[in-house]
Predict the structure.
Amino acid sequence: QVQLVESGGGLVQPGGSLRLSCAASGRTFSRNAMGWFRQAPGKAREFVGAINWSSSTTYYSDSVKGRFTISRDNSKNTVYLQMNSLKPEDTAVYYCAARKAIYLTSRYSSSSEYDYWGQGTQVTVSS
């Protein structure tokens, strides 16, 4: 069992940066591939990024590629999402998610691939 708690959200101006953290409990965190998703009001949840257990593989959606970076520190049971050059369209509730498996499949962008979810943290990009 893995429990996930996100933090680091808030209000930021366009062009600004935020770093989200997702703290995991459970002894097997280092064996979990992780993902970040987001959901804006009135929209479906969408994939943001994913990372495998060793950090050797990362994926990003086209909308955030080059601006967001996903990383993890297995010694701290934490995965991060560094968000730079934020835009108003990045406004959403951001969720981290964990797979039971260490690897990512070709379906890494599908929410159904993930077994555990955090409660989400709000990110608002506005002037």
